[in-house]
């Protein structure tokens, strides 16, 4: 795993100078987030005075612990004894939170070079890990509209889709569901036609701004499609603050990681590359690769 991470770093350094650095966030007249500048969108968020009552109208659901275990959602359990792998996601949670708070970022996209890298599993584990911090409110939005998987993973059924919210045809309140008091999901129950066009439409940003202004999430996680299969992810990158790239150890090539990271870095901030499905964990910490 160290060799893979070293190769990623080497590839990144080799292209340094060919990619312009991400544009810095312009200073805001509003009071900045401690530790860094505040993004323009974060100024839309009102102080979280009583988010419990704001989130109360969202429907509740209780995921099955057995179902979560079968789906490898190791952060779902609240028991004192953490399942194997949970500590790695808690570490990822802390690193992501620190970096996003320092920059005033609120929107995190999670994608992968190809399918079967485990990006949705990573998104769910990160979300449930975040939910264990009671003061952190997280929304997970499903953007992999050609192959939606979150409803099946969470054992959800319903008619309202997140795509309809983004089109301005449905209310987020009627579609989103809470798994925890501070964790809400907005999913799709079937493939969405013309997904690339939707992700580039003029309705996207106003819909997301309205959700943030009303529900005041600290973090919104977007489960994106694989990078190299469609243009859907690139179409959406201009409305997120940062992106996490999930690669599968022993199946994702370094060339695939390099081209994805290059394309993503040209449009948004890359917070890191996570090596998933590692057969060999760090002997001392038990952590996955995260660069």
The tally of structural domains comes to 1
- In the CATH hierarchy, the third-tier topology is known as Rossmann fold
Give the termini distance in whole angstroms: 11 Å
Oligomer: single chain
Based on secondary structure, the structural category is: alpha/beta
Largest sheet: 9 strands, mixed
Please give a quick description of this structure.
The protein has 291 residues and is an alpha/beta fold. Helix content is 35%, strand content 14%.
Characteristic key phrases:
single chain; 291 residues; alpha/beta; Rossmann fold; 12 helices; 35% helix; disordered C terminus
Describe this structure in words.
- With 291 residues, this protein is an alpha/beta fold.
- Helices cover 35% and strands 14% of the residues.
- Strand 4 and strand 5 form a beta hairpin.
- 43% of the residues are buried.
- The C terminus is likely disordered.
Topology:
Elements (H helix, E strand, L loop, with lengths): L1 H13 L36 H5 L3 E2 L4 H6 L15 H18 L3 E5 L7 H13 L6 E5 L7 H5 L7 H5 L5 H4 L1 E4 L2 E4 L8 H5 L4 H12 L3 E5 L8 H5 L5 E7 L5 H12 L3 E8 L12 E2 L1
Parallel strand pairs: 1-4, 2-6, 2-7, 3-5, 3-6, 7-8
Antiparallel strand pairs: 4-5, 8-9
Helix pairs in contact: 1-12, 4-5
